[in-house]
Amino acid sequence: MRRNTATVEAPAVTSDIVSSAYEIPPEVLSLLALPAFDTLAEDRARGAVCLWCPERLSAETAVDLGEQAGEAGRWWPRACGPCTGRRAHQALYAHVAFCEPCVDDVGQCRTGLALTRLVRKYRR
Known about the structure:
Shape: globular
Strand content: 5-15%
Radius of gyration: 18 Å
Strand order of the largest sheet: 1-4
């Protein structure tokens, strides 16, 4: 007797959700000027609200800014896409002014390239 079993495939998790924290190098995070942990309200510190605006975040709307460590301990900041894009845009202008490889071709600089990708992905 042959058993007929269905194969169920789980939906793939989008690469945006899985790899967002890994796409932003630490030097780029420092240029985004994350606020100090001890200045944050509880909902911002736990990632329920954007670091920079009052936007409530969900798994679909949050940009994971990786793990941060400080005197207060470890925390995992999150922000909304539009704020991340604006911060990346400001940081890119500041960075390019002092980075000679970026003046010629932003693709030659890891920091400039990462900032450009953030701007393209989140600036609206």
